[in-house]
Amino acid sequence: MSVLDRFRLDGKRALITGGSRGLGREMALALAEAGADIVIVGRDEASLLRTTADLRRIGRQAAWLLADIGQPEGCQEACERALADHGPIDILINNVGGRRENIATEEMPLEVWQRLVDLNLTSVFLCGKLIGGAMIARGGGGRIINIASINAFVAGRGIAGRHYEACKAAVVQFTRATAVDWAPHRITVNAICPGGFMTEPNVRWSNLHPEVIESFRSQIPLGEFGRPEDIGPLAVYLASDASRYMTGAALVIDGGYTLW
């Protein structure tokens, strides 16, 4: 088998939460180009339909599920539907998440904290439990990729909402712990920790808090934000046989931001 052949995903099926827009969409397109069939989950039907059509144009089977993964009941239902209607799932990318709120810790209501913990952490647990559990039961191995953040390691500057740092740090450690647990089942579990990417949420942040975004950009050694498509090749690597011997890793892709 050639080196490039090890990156092929022919015959595999991937489930990607938050897969219709931003980084999720780019990872879905990249995995499809590598040969995988794709199931995407999201809250916006229009973007789900648009991305599904783009995936099918690549020549892959593609399906979509309308669900709010940030709600535990919706998350569980979506995973169960994915397994029942589109299984087996060989690759899981837990991509849903976001800061969403710029509220100081001392002012954050408990219900807001819990809602955002469900979005950024509980969703990773539930999808991992259900899809990973199905991988274990099937006995054919699998790949799980959790999208964490550089804020698992460093605090965001000039912005509050520390639920995000707390949850993303927990995602990294959950990745490491489940990697140990599921290695005997030939399931690898790795995390991607993106830095600044100009996705739709960050475009909105740039309009609301331009000083925060410009300060962030000035701290990046490579001098620019990542493009969403930059993350696709890394997702393909972690989803493929090329990363067969890597598990429990947290791979930073941030233009050098965390090197300072």
Keywords:
single chain; alpha/beta; seven-stranded parallel β-sheet; 45% helix; globular
Describe this protein's structure.
By secondary structure, this protein is of the alpha/beta class. It has a single domain, classed as Rossmann fold. 45% of the residues lie in helices and 15% in strands. Strands 3-2-1-4-5-6-7 form a seven-stranded parallel sheet, sandwiched between helices. Helix 1 crosses helix 8. The longest helix is centred in the middle third of the chain and has 29 residues. It is globular, with a radius of gyration of 17 Å.
H and E order:
EHEHEHEHEHEHHHE
Terminal residue distance: 40 Å
Task: Tell me what the CATH architecture is.
Answer: 3-Layer(aba) Sandwich
What general outline do the C-alpha atoms trace? globular
Low-pLDDT ranges:
none
SS strand fraction: 5-15%
Classify the oligomer. single chain
Radius of gyration: 17 Å
Number of helices: 8
How much helicity do the residues have? 40-55%
Structural class: alpha/beta
Number of strands: 7
Count structural domains: 1
CATH class term: Alpha Beta
Mean pLDDT: 96
CATH topology: Rossmann fold
Widest sheet, order of strands: 3-2-1-4-5-6-7
Largest sheet: 7 strands, parallel
Topology:
Elements: E1 13-17, H1 22-33, E2 37-42, H2 45-58, E3 62-66, H3 72-86, E4 91-94, H4 110-138, E5 142-147, H5 163-182, E6 187-194, H6 200-208, H7 210-218, H8 232-239, E7 250-253
Parallel strand pairs: 1-2, 1-4, 2-3, 4-5, 5-6, 6-7
Helix pairs in contact: 1-2, 1-8, 3-4, 4-5, 6-7
